[in-house]
Amino acid sequence: MNNFYVYAWLRPCGTPFYIGKGVGKRDRQVKNNPIFKNILSKIKRSGNEPVLIRILENLDEDEAFEMEKALIKSYGRKNNGTGILANMTDGGDGVSGWVASDETRSKMSESQKGKVFSPETRKKIGDANKARRQSEGTRAKLSALRTGTKLSEDHRKKIGESLKGRERSEEHRAKLSVALMGNKNGSFTNLNISRVGRPLGDEHRAKMTLARRMAPGRRGYKGVSQRSCGKKWRTEINVDGAITYLGTYTNPEDAARAYDKAAYEAWGFNCYLNFPEEFAVKEAA
């Protein structure tokens, strides 16, 4: 099944500190790895958040393993002095598709029953959850998850009932009044409009640049477009704002490989490649 992917946890500067292979929500899990946790702690203490990206998706398990191993070999591991990654192995290992049995789940549930946390521990958990809910990154992720979500009639009715009779403070009403004053597009739309043209910091620009490099092609192969005649494909690459024409080809695969060659020479695996397995084989060799 082609439902596997290769992912990376990135430092705010854009360099990876962990490469993995997964399925489902595996990439979001914090690793039980002292080097990984130490790096993650340093990033958060500096007031930043790590960046999580999926480098390549729709792979079968063997392809994902090979890509994972090639990337780990390329960047090297901190624990054996060969590079910058927190990975403890060279990849290609781990448990795939494991599902806990009913007996195991029952044991896990029983082990948690009866546990009582002290008031101090409960306060720490509450403060941690509150901080997580209030962070810009978390709000952005929640907003993205909710975008396009349609509520059922029953759900909307329940929300409406819960809001009836609610009294807002004077401060809250004042904020709403200011936000809606002369508003024709809605406060959320106007907020987005106000952000257009706002100067971005170097860190933000670096993240956006990396995200664009890692993004797959919108229509077919990345870097490839079809000429108006419909019989040839041209390819070009944008490196640091300079667009380089790479040629015109009679089939899209050749055009995609021309783009891959130029992209790999410019960024290595820090970009989206149409045929990453070809470069992974070269790295392994």
Model description:
- The chain is 47% helix and 14% strand.
- With 285 residues, it is α+β, with helices and mostly antiparallel strands.
- It has a 3-stranded antiparallel β-sheet with strand order 2-1-3.
- Strand 5 and strand 6 form a beta hairpin.
- Helix 2 crosses helix 11.
- The longest helix is centred in the middle third of the chain and has 16 residues.
- About 2% of the residues have low confidence.
Strand-and-helix sequence, N→C? EEHEHHHHHHHHEEEHH
Taken from the alpha-carbon principal axes, the silhouette is globular
Strand order of the largest sheet: 2-1-3
Largest sheet: 3 strands, antiparallel
Rounded radius of gyration (Å): 24 Å
Mean pLDDT: 77
Low-confidence segments, given as residue ranges, are 95-100
Computed structural class: alpha+beta
Work out the strand percent: 5-15%
Count of runs of 4 or more consecutive helical residues: 11
Measured as a percent range, the helix fraction is: 40-55%
Tell me the distance between the termini: 27 Å
Extended strand count: 6
Feature tags:
285 residues; 11 helices; 3-stranded antiparallel β-sheet; globular; 6 strands; alpha+beta
Quick overview of this protein structure:
By secondary structure, the chain is of the alpha+beta class. 47% of the residues lie in helices and 14% in strands.
